[in-house]
Design goal:
Chain lengths: 107, 319
């Protein structure tokens, strides 16, 4: 299992969707920490605590973007992601983004 | 706006505000400066009688002055004649307006309702550019003993900035074809006054109406336009973006950012949000965790950009 702590390993100030628009984006986080292990079928434990907060663009692109980029089913992605947060609503939000991305992909 | 008796001076408004006659006066003031800059004239801005500076009006002033100086051929196109009012002078010093224009001001801000003004600006949405939010939250806790919900504030403000970076300059703005600065896309102020926290984010882009069609389905826009027919078109565009985010549609992964602005109020339970885009605005108010007001407003002029403004009481009502 690969463990990623967003505040320790990436930034305390996650913000925005795309790499082209800034250094702390969801796309940047996904490419650096999530894509390779998920593609290879490894489990990734992501700790969300310790940052100043998260916007929906960052979360959607980081996690929903996995479905779009790797062309995987939501069930597969969610089975390999273990998300930890003191705020349960963040975990629920991420799960929803992954499922929504899958629905959109299959449309 | 120029007064021949004062030479090539442009008289600043008494109040920097975006509503009503104040807003129109601010618009005329900014247009007069822009015209002078376009004509290649060096201009004096006479702030002698300026007394009141509200966050939304003041950030528009700051952003436009920054834009005009950045695009001027002159090394120093604007000179400021300082306000007689000590408080107004302190505010302009605190936000860094004299630094923008290159004018000296010996005033040292010390008033309690001034020293909590802080300024940030940036080109992209990198989170470290917004770290001032965390600093303010810590200061509020230290100085006032009350807590700002940093995570929800971060969500609203960072998404406002992300929206500006992604959408503001997709098209030239209608009024003058401005297509953005290379070095700055957004401006932000925070302020604490009378136990109320204010944060305001501004861009000088094309506005909601020009770009919602790129991230929101046409039939959704048509439904809202029909429902609010006859009302201000920019206010309808703002409401469309907000409503699209609220509906939680699964049609697209885009369009949720506007909704994050509202999350700040929902989580804080009490406070106000106003979103201004060109000639329209929508105001939201929460009390005790419930939405108690939602109002569309036509400004009667265009701010030529977008402003998101939050007002959050730092103490619950009655305490």
């Amino acid at each position: 299992m690969i463990v990623v702590d967003v505040s320790r390993d990436f930034t305390r100030f996650p913000s925005g969707r795309f790499k082209k628009n800034g250094t702390t984006s969801g796309e940047g986080f996904r490419e650096r920490f999530l894509e390779a292990p998920i593609r290879e079928g490894n489990t990734v434990e992501v700790n969300l605590d310790g940052t100043v907060g998260y916007g929906s663009s960052f979360l959607e692109e980081a996690f929903g973007g996995l479905v779009r980029k790797l062309q995987l089913d939501a069930d597969k992605v969610l089975s390999l992601l273990h998300i930890h947060s003191n705020d349960p609503s963040l975990v629920e939000e991420i799960v929803q983004y992954v499922k929504d991305a899958d629905t959109e992909r299959k449309r | 706006m120029g007064n021949p008796a004062l030479g090539d001076q442009i008289i600043a408004p008494h109040r920097f505000n975006v509503f009503g006659n104040d807003g129109l006066e601010l618009r005329n003031f900014l247009d007069a400066i822009a015209e002078a800059i376009r004509d290649g004239r060096q201009t004096k801005l006479n702030f002698r009688n300026t007394k009141m500076l509200y966050p939304a009006g003041t950030i528009l002033l700051y952003a436009e002055i920054d834009r005009m100086i950045s695009t001027s051929a002159h090394a120093k196109p604007i000179t400021i004649l300082q306000p007689k009012s000590q408080r107004a002078r302190e505010v302009l010093k605190q936000i860094g307006l004299f630094d923008l224009t290159g004018d000296k001001c010996a005033t040292i801000p010390k008033r309690n309702d001034v020293v909590f003004w802080s300024t940030a600006k940036g080109k992209d949405q990198s989170g470290q550019n917004l770290a001032v939010i965390e600093v303010v939250a810590k200061t509020v806790k230290l100085e006032l003993g009350t807590t700002l919900l940093l995570d929800s504030l971060w969500r609203g403000v960072s998404e406002a900035v992300a929206n500006s970076v992604e959408h503001a300059h997709k098209l030239p703005r209608e009024a003058d074809g401005f297509q953005g600065l290379a070095e700055t896309t957004w401006w932000m102020f925070t302020q604490v006054k009378d136990d109320i926290f204010y944060v305001v984010v501004c861009d000088l882009g094309c506005g909601y109406r020009a770009t919602i069609g790129q991230s929101i389905p046409e039939r959704f826009i048509a439904q809202l336009s029909q429902a609010f027919a006859g009302q201000n078109v920019d206010a309808i565009a703002i409401e469309t973006a907000m409503e699209f985010g609220r509906s939680g549609t699964k049609e697209t992964h885009r369009g949720r950012g506007s909704r994050d602005a509202m999350t700040v109020l929902e989580r804080h339970q009490n406070g106000e949000l106003a979103i201004f885009s060109n000639s329209g605005a929508v105001q939201y108010q929460y009390s005790g965790g419930n939405s108690i007001k939602q109002k569309r407003v036509g400004l009667g002029f265009s701010i030529n950009g977008t402003i998101l403004w939050w007002k959050l009481p730092l103490k619950a009502p009655g305490k």
